[in-house]
Design a protein that fits this description.
single chain, alpha/beta, Helicase, Ruva Protein, domain 3, Rossmann fold, 2 domains, 5 strands
């Protein structure tokens, strides 16, 4: 967003940038409840599967989870490269937890399980967050339940949070993955936000850059919500485009007519 657009609306920074701290995240009540369910599950040493369509806020929920887990009680490890084979996948986890990756799959697996046991001795509960889990190699997905098995399945030393698109649930329901599915105690799904949530989100992002004005008229919010299908990722993009257009036309507010012009233009592009 140009300096001229920022100055036109008295903004201190681009309001819809991806660069936002965990403490400044905004979640609607429905997602707040889901984060609480995640925290409760991990606190109870359970494993979870979280699914949702692209852009509905899975990453925001994970960042909120990271913010709310006390570091003195939990060790959260985030892994996002889900296209690796089994050995390289476990090597990735080794690197993420600060271990030296080993040469063989057996050695890498042993190093991770040993680290998990040592963390339990130190009263730190490890949480492995596996993002884009719908892309996990079948060999990896079929092996994860073994990673959760400690002392003849009598102790819960590790929580795994599988995050992905809705087709992840279909993959887990296959017979070969039922041992893993049976160990996923909570099965959560993220849905799109409401129009009221979209309006509250836009106001929140503007307040973060010291703008207390209602820059988006009610009809503009309705159109932006519909065009973004209730996903914040698309809402950020479209709100930024319409705000830039309003600045170019020296408008003091984004109204529905202007939103329609921008949407039509980009539909033809």
């Amino acid at each position: 967003m140009s300096d001229s657009t920022l100055s036109a609306f008295g903004l201190t920074a681009p309001p819809f940038s991806k660069e936002i701290s965990d403490t400044d995240l905004w979640l609607p009540p429905s997602k707040e409840e889901l984060v609480e369910e995640l925290v409760d599950a991990v606190t109870a040493r359970q494993s979870v599967v979280l699914t949702g369509e692209p852009g509905v806020g899975k990453t925001c929920v994970l960042r909120a989870l990271r913010q709310r887990l006390p570091k003195e009680r939990f060790r959260l490890t985030y892994c996002h490269n889900a296209t690796l084979g089994r050995r390289d996948f476990y090597r990735q986890i080794c690197l993420a937890v600060g271990l030296s990756p080993k040469a063989t799959a057996v050695a890498v697996f042993y190093a991770i399980t040993t680290e998990v046991e040592q963390l339990a001795t130190a009263r730190l509960h490890p949480v492995f967050v596996l993002d884009e889990a719908h892309l996990l190699h079948p060999e990896v997905l079929g092996h994860l339940h073994i990673l959760l098995n400690y002392e003849w399945d009598a102790r819960a030393l590790l929580s795994i949070v599988l995050v992905g698109l809705p087709e992840l649930e279909d993959r887990l329901s296959l017979g070969t993955h039922k041992p893993l599915l049976s160990r996923l105690h909570a099965r959560l799904r993220l849905s799109s936000v409401s129009e009221e949530d979209s309006g509250a989100y836009l106001r929140h992002r503007l307040v973060l850059v010291w703008c207390a004005k209602e820059l988006f008229a009610r009809d503009a919010v309705a159109l932006l919500h519909e065009a973004s299908a209730g996903t914040h990722r698309d809402l950020d993009r479209l709100a930024g485009l319409t705000l830039r257009e309003a600045g170019r036309k020296k408008r003091k507010q984004v109204e529905g007519e202007l939103v329609r012009e921008v949407l039509d233009r980009h539909a033809r592009a």
